[in-house]
């Protein structure tokens, strides 16, 4: 279950980092969520793979539910922010300038769409796992 989330989390991380980040506040949160969830899921997976789950007296079903519930909420917010960044494609960067430079050029717009779709996939997978 963790491997598709790892894969798509890594893809989101790469796609957002590949753009010029026109809106650092919005895409900074998306990067924070992607990197943090990726790192924590690696730690969570390592605990099970190396057998530390038997040594630590924690209700692992509850921890799994809390982890996926938190990533569910954070990835939903990240999806909304990434979709908002993508929707600004047609607006000019500077309204009073003589040249109409777009916030996202065509290539960055496509990358932003791909990142939004990957975040949406993670969100849907998190929903299936949690509920």
TrEMBL record:
Endoplasmic reticulum as UniProt keyword: no
- Please verify whether the record's keywords include Chloroplast: no
Q: Which Pfam families match?
A: MARVEL (PF01284)
**Annotated membrane topology:** Multi-pass membrane protein
- BP term (GO), one: myelination
**GO CC annotation:** membrane
Q: Where is the MARVEL domain?
A: 1-131
InterPro entries in the cross-refs: MAL, Marvel, MARVEL-CKLF_proteins
Q: Which UniProt keywords apply?
A: Membrane, Transmembrane, Transmembrane helix
Which residues are listed as membrane-spanning? 28-53, 65-84, 104-124
* Molecular function GO terms recorded: structural constituent of myelin sheath
Q: Where does the record place it?
A: Membrane
Primary location recorded for the protein, binned into one broad class: membrane
> What name does this protein carry?
MAL2 protein
Gene field: Mal2
């Amino acid at each position: 279950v963790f491997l598709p989330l790892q894969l798509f989390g890594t893809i989101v991380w790469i796609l957002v980092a590949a753009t010029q980040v026109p809106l650092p506040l919005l895409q900074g949160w998306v990067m924070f969520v992607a990197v943090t969830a990726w790192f924590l899921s690696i730690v969570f997976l390592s605990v099970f793979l190396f057998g530390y789950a038997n040594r630590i007296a924690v209700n692992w079903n509850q921890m799994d539910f809390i982890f996926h519930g938190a990533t569910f909420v954070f990835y939903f917010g990240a999806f909304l922010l990434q979709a908002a960044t993508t929707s600004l494609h047609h607006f000019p960067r500077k309204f009073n300038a003589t040249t109409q430079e777009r916030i996202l050029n065509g290539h960055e717009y496509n990358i932003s769409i791909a990142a939004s779709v990957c975040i949406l996939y993670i969100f849907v997978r998190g929903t299936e796992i949690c509920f």
